[in-house]
Amino acid sequence: MSGIGSARISWSSISRSYGIYFVLAAMIILSSVINPNFFSAENISNVTRQISVTTILAFGETILIICGMLDLSCGSVLALSGLLSVASYKLTGSMELAFAVAIGVAVLCNYLNAMMVALFNAPAFIATLAMQEMARGAALLFTRGQNIYQIGDYTRIGQGSIGFIPIPLLFLVGLFLVTWYILNNTRFGRGLYAIGGNQEAAKASGINVNRTKIIAFMVNGVFVGIAGVLFMSRVNAGLPNGAINYEFQGLTSSIIGGTSFSGGIGTAGGTVVGSFIVGFLNNILNLANVNSYLQQIIRGAIIALAVIYDIWTKNRRTRSLVRGVAAAK
Amino acid sequence: MDSYKLQVLHISKSFPGVLALDDISLSARAGSVLVLCGENGAGKSTLMKIIDGVYQPDKGEILIDGKRVHVRSPIHARKLGISMIFQELNYIPEMTVEESLFCGRLPTRAGRVDWKAVHRRTLELLEKENLPYSPTMRMKDLSVSDIQMLEILKAISRDASIIIMDEPTSAITQREVERLFSKIADLKARGTCIIYISHKMDEIFRIADDIAILRDGRVVESRPRSELDIDKVISLMVGRKLESTFPKRAIEIGEEALRVEKLTAPGVFRDISFSVRAGEIVGFAGLMGAGRTEVMRAVFGLDRYASGEIRVRGKRVRISSVRDSKAAKIAMLSEDRRRYGLVSVRSVRENMSLPNLRQFIYRGRLHGLKETKVISDICTRLNVKTPSLATAVEALSGGNQQKVVLGKWMLSEPDVLIMDEPTRGIDVGSKYEIYKLMGDLAAEKRALIMVSSELPELIGMCDRIYVMCKGEISGELARDEFTQEAIMRLAMGFEKQTKEAS
Question: Is the ipTM of this complex over 0.90?
């Protein structure tokens, strides 16, 4: 006998794996009851455009947190790369170049993050905090603190639709697939989980820890660059002061989506759901005219609950699995 | 005679699946040194932790001055006059000497710490005990021996009447040992009861008044020093009978698979030379800290070595990372599987495929079905008991976790498999399965290295045994020369000593 039983299905295991999807579904239903406008085409289109940017940032955060790191610089790097992208578009009128500039700048910034972390062993928290300051400073310096207006057709990306589907949503879906593929179907993805779960064991298994961390940051850079274009084109301007605190929205979405801050655990699907929960929550609180300061308190409380839930289920998971193993014997 | 300072009577303690202490009774007198010796895992530390209040015994009682006490916690133990000096000294590097001495019991005046009193009392203590430190020196600037002295000072300042020392000489120089011993003599003269844990024979016979020998959780002998000699103690320490539970197979030994020549890492090990052949199981014996694990880590590319060479199948290789050793078809099971072997939050499948992902790549993509099939086969072969392949390994028992680590390295098809303490902390059934598997692997013409602190399994499973002592190989034994006594003599560096003496 092999001793490998089939995984038994129980309510507790379903709620553990899919609980967050139920939360999202319940929220959508509740929202549409509270305010019929929630399901209007205009509102849905608006919400998805807003959510797209932070969700894409959240994908990057998820990849990094799984690997035991994080990125505090993505809001600033988004602003810098988006700004330079807008400027290059105004000069040349080439959208391809605009994308290349945004992605190039964001990847470069993240490469510097990675060097700090991989070569000098700096904690990602500190390295990216430094980059947050530098990138924001560079963005402000570039325009002397001024916004860039009249950006012309640049706005098509963030404001346009293909059929009834907003273009940012297409990017979101595309990058979701990329993230999902990386996490599930590549050696790099397995390396991320292993390093975040136990870096020393990963090393002792022959995983190239430094290279994996560097690639993780560079993938994050690609995501941030794309988010930069989407953001600037949605707001119809180059804002050096844009996207402040977006790193925290990305982190929040990722954590509510079940990514564990202790590393080694997280999924692409969970991240999307986490991000939608945050986005829909903001939307419904706005539609219901909830005081914006109060909204902030609610958002904070939800992060606290998500983390408590994460720790609580982790303990329960271990315990129930131990029981399961004992039963399998 | 009821003049005993400390008595433990009929103490038993079990942990899940292990009976750590089995009806232990010991007595220690005031003004004397009781030495407790035994192999790793004999139960010495567990017993000390019970006296120190870290663990509660399942059965039995502790008496101090003939009165029954219940030691609730280490803090309570301090109040009862018991002080413990650990092998691994715990200290806060940034603390000053005086802060460290009075840590946890700083004198206060009107709710504020009375630093003047702390300073004064520290000076008094240092002067009285004749120790040359300044109260404001930082702990990080002191040597291990200094810190040990301060720990003893701390015990004295608490008026400890019972001081337990756990292998205090494992990290200090010969000169510092002399200083420690004169301090111990001093304490004895003042009537302190000292319990001294060690397995260094020369020390034991220098300072002991009484010697108690523990083996497999029992006291096998407890006598005054004058009634014992070194040979007797060694044979009592190791003297369990060899069970015939080792499925040793006769396998034809093939070509040389790995040769290590004069491998040296300064301060860790030096001039290490050994070889393993295909189909051979070679053991590495030695006491804790002899450098066996460090040598194997260097061969596997986890640590660096300064000089020497490694040859795999006759070809010289430079190994500086696990990727190099994987390419040379060397694999290693770490002694600390939680730290180096497993990513506990991830699944059985992911853990086993981690070093072998290349095998499952098909057109640039991880082939999930193939992976599942291969992992499922190896789990069946190793009889891994798990609810599913997606179960996180942290939920498995120690034996099954070890099988997962073994399986992950078997999948990499190594020519040389290094196993560091492969049976530590696992149940008897799993142990036997691992022994059997070692035989199978040897039969597949793989070369096996087994590092172990359990002599019976080394003797039972190996074709040859190298013994290490203090970072060097102190001897090599062929199968017909295996005895526990011979190995222990080499391991303790005792063989060398007698050779020089004669």
Answer: no
